[in-house]
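Late entry, written up from scratch paper. The run itself happened at the end of the previous shift, but nothing got recorded in the book at the time, so transcribing now.
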Amino acid sequence: MEKCGHCALGRRDFIRIAFGAAAGTALGAKFGFASGQEGAAAKAKSVILLWMQGAASQIDTWDPKPGAANGGPFKALDTKHGYSISEHLPRMANLADKYSVVRTLCSKDPNHETAQYLLHTGHRRVETVDYPHLGSLICSELGMREGGLPGCVTIGGDDGVGAGFLAPETAPFLVEKIDNPLEDLSPAPGLTTTRLDDRARLLRAQNAEFRKEHDERQTLEHQRAYDRALALMKSPHLKAFDISAEPEETRKLYGEGAFSRACLMARRLVEAGSRFVEVRLADWDSHSDNFNRQRGLMNQLDPGFSALLGDLHRRTMLDDTLVVWLSEFGRTPKVNAAQGRDHFSRAWSCVLAGGGIQGGRVVGATTADGMEIADRPVSVEDLYATIFDRLGIDPAKKVATPNGRPIRLLEGGRPVRELL
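Output as recorded:
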């Protein structure tokens, strides 16, 4: 798990950025807002992405191969829906009716950086286009919900993917400091609301003069980011970040682990109006000592993931909240000499729940040794088409980049109908 450190937007950074004309772009990249309209055909209104940084082993989690030479030491745990998952995910096994597993996701990109970009944008990296983060795109297409919160939030680390060709204000808002995320959104000591408002008015006046001789679109985007930042500092909805305000019974349900607490924060943010929240659980890159590492990470994953699904269900939020469990690729079925598993992008697993996704299903099958797809390959584009379908987003829609180039939201891909 990535260690939770200081929030990426500190108080000094905020003052320097918000009131320093030369640093406009940086603040815009911290907040996810847009002004579009929600799709009329939408089934889901928001997305929670559980991102397993470093690539989880599909064989040791959702596609066990008990008895196979490559199967490893973990036992398979049967669910009530006729399929098995790892013995180290017992709580998730009990909730198998709430989610479905795709066992045949494939991309043929075994490189961390480019695969992470692909899975976060739906597009392979090219030099000519900087594609937007999925959360940025969702905010842009569906619009910012009322409440003043960031539309797109990433908890637990920066994935390095931003707003791309969309407005900088749609980029993910980064939260690393889970224990006290509000500290860095508070005004500096001695800075009263009156003084803060005076500085904001001065900044708007300076920007108005600046726009007379510079790109009006870009300066307006930056001004909107400043205004959103100031509104966020004053918003009563900031309490959504504060999991200590949650009843003790609910906090006990999630547990004390950092990942579990981040999942609780994600639920609170979505409930308060955020469109997209990503929760990151790192250190799955197990080239050595794979089984101990995967076991330890599943011991963090199982209580957090299961608590999130159960909590969303009890609050009747699961129908309109799409939950996706995903990593950039999987790990080799073959165990190497260091008792590790290496990068593997030919067939790995992902999990989807809520937002109209049918539960208790498995899509696709891998061969007995896990090396190949035996039935029903699912591309990254297919996965994105499924997500877009649940959100009521037209994947064939074209949007214009700042230089006027028309870009299709998704190139190819069909929704996985077995899940719908």
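The chain is about 30% helix and 15% strand.
(Scratch paper discarded after transcription.)
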